[in-house]
Amino acid sequence: QGQFVDRTEEWALRREREDLLEQKIRDRELIEEKTVQLENLATRLAKYLSPQIYQSIFSDEGKTIEKHSRKNLTIFLSDIVKFTDLTDTLEPERLALVINSYLSEMSAIALDNGGTIDKFIGDAVLVFFGDPESEGEREDALKCVEMSLRMKQRVKELQKHWKKLGVVNEISIRMGIATGYCTVGNFGSDLRLDYTVLGSPVNLAARLESMAEPNTILIDENTKNLIEEDVDCKEFDSFIPKGFSRAIQVFKVNDFISSKHRTQRKKLSHTGERVEINVLDSSDIHAAMKELREIQEYLEEQFKENK
Q: What is the per-residue burial (b if ≥16 Cβ within 10 Å, else e) of 166-202?
């Protein structure tokens, strides 16, 4: 009788251990399932946020993004000239292809230059430099102007691609840049927040963009003072924007003063020994070959300097 009781207890303990093991396995599978769901959700969410903002939210210091701060930022705003005509002449599907390709290309350039994409407003793109990461006011302004010049060139390169999608007239963009103190942080309601910038430089960038000619970059005097050693700027106009008490001097950006200097500054589209160049159609081949030659010249100069 005693031996039978002992074996019953042994079986009960064994069954209890098996139940615990099965529960642990189920818990682990549930955790793995929830982890995959969270990763998929985070991946989808990343498409709605600039990488800098995304990293700030999901890093250990994510709470810092809840604060509002006042910083000296360089603000960029662009839009497509006669965008309404484009929307009236293209079918919805074609229009979506054109606009999505345009915004994708402009976004890639903005992020490559370290800009924070604030938002898309239809065809308009709002980008700022200096938050959440900054390399100094001068470098932020230079990166913004460099981004603008690259966008201008890329739009020119994409004309044949867009023509195949049904765009009759060439797509042109106009750009405005202003530098000054802005308040940056989360703004909105209890139900929805936007991480964005507020301040007169944002309004000024919008005014400069609206008065720019097609494929032209206009900047304010603050930006010009930061970049004039490296960038060729010409006086364009002066005006008193609504809400401003004094006249604003406006300058037109031509290009970097030295093409060699621009090549040295250029943030090349490669990492380590891997080179990435997007070729959408045959019109991009020459641009790709040109960039490869620039990369070669740049690396040869670096090799000579380090020799």
A: ebeeebbbbbbbbbbebebbeeeeeeeeebbbebebb
Cβ-contact 205, 231 below 8 angstroms:
no
Clarify whether residues 301 and 244 are in a common domain.
Answer: no
β 173-188/69-80 pair status: antiparallel
Closest CA to 212 of 131, 152, 291, 274: 152
Check whether residue 196 and residue 85 sit in a common domain: yes
pLDDT, position 58: 63
The answer to whether residues 92 and 221 belong to one domain is yes
Confidence class for position 270, pLDDT limits 50, 70, 90? very low
When divided into structural domains, the chain yields a total of 3
126 token code pair: 């709002």
- Percent helix, strand, coil in the chain, to 5, is 55, 25, 25
What's the confidence (pLDDT) of residue 45? 66
Cα atoms in the 13 Å half-sphere on the side-chain side of 159: 10
Based on the domain organization, do 121 and 247 belong to the same domain?
Answer: yes
pLDDT at 287: 62
- C-alpha–C-alpha distance, residues 303 and 23, integer Å: 61
Q: Read off the tokens for 112.
A: 């490559």
User: 240 burial class (0-12, 13-18, 19+ CB within 10 angstroms)?
Assistant: exposed
Question: Is residue 53 within 8 Å of 66, Cβ to Cβ?
Answer: no
- Structural domain boundaries, residue 289: 268-307
Do the domain assignments include residue 262? no
The phi-psi region of residue 86 (left if phi > 0; otherwise alpha if psi is between -120 and 50; otherwise beta) is alpha
CATH number at residue 97: 3.30.70.1230
